[in-house]
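JOB MANIFEST
job_type = single_chain_structure
chain_count = 1
residues = 449
[input]
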Amino acid sequence: MVTEKSVKELENSQIALTMTVDAASIEKAYAERLAKYSKTIEMPGFRKGRVPASVVERKFGEAIREESTFDALEEHLKETLDTLELEQKPLPYSTPVLQDEETLLPFKKDSDVTFTVVYDALPKIALPAYTGLEVEVPEVEVTDADVEEEVNALREQNALVRSKSGKAEDGDIITLDIVELDENDKEVEGTKREDFTFTIGSGYNFYKLDNDVTGLEKDAEKVIEKTYAEEDGVPGYAGKTVKISVKVKELKRRELPVVDDDFAQDVKDEYKTVADLKAGLRAKLEKNVEEKSKNDKAAALMAKISADCPFAVPASMIDMEVEQSWNKFVNQSGMPEEQLMAFFKMQNQTKEGIMAEWREPAEKNLREQLILEEIKKKEDFALDQEEYEKACEEQLKSIQDENTKEYYKTMIKDDMQFAKVVPFLLENNTFKGGAKVSYKEFMNPSEAN
């Protein structure tokens, strides 16, 4: 049994748990393990299961003592962890790490063993003021130019696409066969792509070939030599010169429809005139602004609260978040992980390098989620009982076991309370208008810049 234990809080949301396991428990574990080996071990001169314990002990005693003692320590550690308060328990994905193992060895007979493990725990969060704050957010107005841009986007969506002859021009849809060539003009394995289609001038092609293919005609072939700079935004190619062989398979051109009442009716039956179309588009853009403004207000408010709430997000928590992001990334790529890694290797990139870039945003997201969770606990939001019971009924109708149901009911309550945190913050803080920005800059700041 554990004769004593102590819990010490360390930096970075870690806990050091020190325990002393009494000699009697350790000797009991040793005796049981010795008896087990005596019945199972095979030794010359003895029948299996008939080897005297004294013989086994003389030959393997030190190894058996080490094995049984470590097992005893682990067993008592698990029992002790179960007795700790939630904030002192290790996170599910944080394995307690034994400290200074070399100082424990060799284990001595009839001796207590004192050892320390370190692990990540839930951080302690001292909430700052989170109501009565004033936060500045941008002001945005939907203009006639924004509406016209939406109209033009609809024209593009409803354009007729026809094959064309002659030279490729900006705005044309071009279909190419592409492959990289090495210094001997041999195809580089894994770079060939057939029937790749993009719109010239859009920049939506990996090698940024828009200007290079302008002027080519159908069936034309060309070897393009390009040197890429950092600002070209071609991952893994900055500072490199490559040769790319292209063959034009097809050229097409969009024919945009005229904006008239017929066009408006084609977009949506409820639009009878161009004026109706533009009014509808303006309402849609204003709704977009309203929804994004709500998200931006919450983000600005969380940034302010987070800045006044210093605590360390556990490293194991960030590791788990980043690993989940990687798995999601692989699934969305539509490629097996091995194939994706081969592609990254060609670009001189590694999984570790990519994931390292994700750690900072992961830490920020986790920090804010932990703060929101702490606010939820403190406020203990009341739920609409009818709404709560309806959610339980719908989500748990296939579950028969009552204990399982109760467990999930607690989770449903937790989720419903958590969903109330952001609306609560938006209602209980003030937002003042800041710099005026355009609709495009507001909705897509990275593109606007």
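[summary]
The mean pLDDT is 92.
The domain at 160-255 is CATH 3.10.50.40 (Chitinase A; domain 3).
exit_status = 0
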